Amino acid sequence: MSDDGHDVAAVIDLLRIDRCPQCGYLLTGLPEAGQCPECGFGYSPDLIVLYGWRYHQSPNWSDSWWGMTLLLTVLGAAIGAVVLGASMSFGWIAGSVVGLVLVGGLAALVVTRRRSMKRDVPPMQARLCAAGFGQRRGFGRVRLVRWDRSHSVTLQGLPGGRYRLTIMVTGPRAMVRLQAQVVFLEFRASEAAALEIHRRIGQWWLGGASAASGDH
After folding, report:
1. Torsion angle of alpha carbons 51, 56, 58, 60, nearest 10°?
2. Beta bridge partners of 19
3. Which residues, at least 6 apart from 84, have a Cβ–Cβ distance to it below 8 Å?
């Protein structure tokens, strides 16, 4: 990577956070460091947020908006059939009660999914910074794990401008069977952005982190 200031600035801009990773609020047009106006989450250029899919998860119809529409349509039809059957067998009162319970459950599912999904945003996010790393589905708080040299960290290039990031945390007995994947994400990025991600991860991983594990 060139040491030219213009090149460095261009790479940093590729990794600029344009959406709050905690609530999904668009940060376009706001300073590169600050707090989310919606939820107060603090962000800066030192934070890397990647959106992608778990290995073999992409494409996943259930994570798309058309997939959710199809799923809700099928569930709605099923609820209608159940309510009709209950009404014919036990009367309209029983059918109404069953319908209200099922509709309430469906509404809770929709609200939960909408909170964790945004249009055109992949379903998984990985959060990386000097304090640690973590992964979750959708937007929200991430429990960070402190960097440690005992972790296994790989960033693999894939066809089509995709990359696979894997971070494994070894168990207390350092046995393979005790390993747990903390980050396992496939994402899209330019080559320059991937090189910068690789550089920062190497710096944090080899240097360790002085901060204790926590939420970010």
Report:
1. -120
2. 26
3. 95
